[in-house]
């Protein structure tokens, strides 16, 4: 589940996690770069893979929060956390981080927050009428006729 070189578990000080939302997405890319880092634990979430995201943001976000808490519990030497989410993964991550955040200590699972990165995440929602998605295609078709 967590990817890091053998023997480096005691050196891990910073966990960086990735959450992605795409049916074909894979955490295999993390295994290519993880041996280059000796003080970082890289983890690609498995909490909501494939069709597991159909349960909604709150259910999937809680599954992610549970997974994150489990990873942190397995690695007591961790001190900081960086989280990265893509698309719907950014929404799930936002939910999970909020669920795990302790305002009195200003920590996430007892770790100092370092970075929250969301890429192409619809934090403000999307156009429910589909105008944003279909509008470009309609404009291109009408110009070509």
Blueprint of the fold:
Elements: E1 2-3, E2 14-19, H1 28-33, E3 40-44, H2 57-74, E4 80-86, H3 88-100, E5 101-102, E6 107-108, E7 112-119, H4 131-144
Parallel strand pairs: 2-3, 2-4, 4-7
Antiparallel strand pairs: 1-3, 5-6
Helix pairs in contact: 2-3
For this entry, give a set of tags.
145 residues, alpha/beta, Rossmann fold, 5-stranded mixed beta sheet, 4 helices, globular, disordered N terminus
Residue runs with pLDDT of under 50 for 5 or more positions: 1-10, 20-24, 133-144
- Strand elements, count: 7
What structural class should be given to the helix and strand makeup? alpha/beta
Q: What is the annotated CATH architecture? A: 3-Layer(aba) Sandwich
List the secondary-structure elements in sequence, H or E. EEHEHEHEEEH
* Name of the level-1 CATH class: Alpha Beta
Instruction: Report the end-to-end length measured between terminal Cα atoms.
Output: 53 Å
- Percent of residues in helices: 25-40%
Strands in their spatial order, largest beta sheet: 1-3-2-4-7
Tally of contiguous helical segments: 4
How many distinct domains? 1
Rounded Rg: 18 Å
Can you walk me through this structure?
35% of the residues lie in helices and 22% in strands. It is globular and about 45 Å long. It has helices at 28-33, 57-74, 88-100, 131-144; strands at 2-3, 14-19, 40-44, 80-86, 101-102, 107-108, 112-119. It has a single domain (2-144), classed as Rossmann fold (3-Layer(aba) Sandwich), CATH 3.40.50. A hairpin with a 4-residue loop joins strand 5 and strand 6 (107-108). Residues 1-10, 20-24 and 133-144 have low confidence and may be disordered. The chain is of the alpha/beta class and 145 residues long. The termini are far apart. It has a five-stranded mixed beta sheet with strand order 1-3-2-4-7. Strands 5-6 form a two-stranded antiparallel sheet. Helix 2 packs across helix 3 (88-100). The chain is built from four helices and seven strands.
């Amino acid at each position: 589940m967590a990817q890091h070189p053998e023997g480096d578990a005691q050196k891990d000080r910073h966990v960086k996690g990735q959450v992605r939302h795409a049916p074909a997405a894979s955490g295999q890319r993390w295994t290519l770069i993880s041996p280059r880092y000796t003080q970082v634990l890289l983890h690609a979430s498995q909490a909501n893979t494939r069709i597991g995201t159909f349960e909604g943001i709150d259910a999937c976000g809680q599954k992610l929060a549970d997974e994150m808490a489990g990873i942190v519990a397995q690695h007591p030497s961790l001190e900081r956390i960086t989280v990265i989410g893509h698309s719907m993964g950014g929404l799930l991550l936002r939910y999970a981080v909020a669920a795990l955040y302790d305002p009195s200590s200003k920590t996430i699972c007892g770790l100092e927050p370092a970075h929250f990165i969301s890429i192409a995440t619809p934090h403000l929602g999307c156009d429910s009428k589909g105008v944003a998605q279909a509008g470009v295609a309609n404009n291109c078709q009408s110009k070509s006729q």
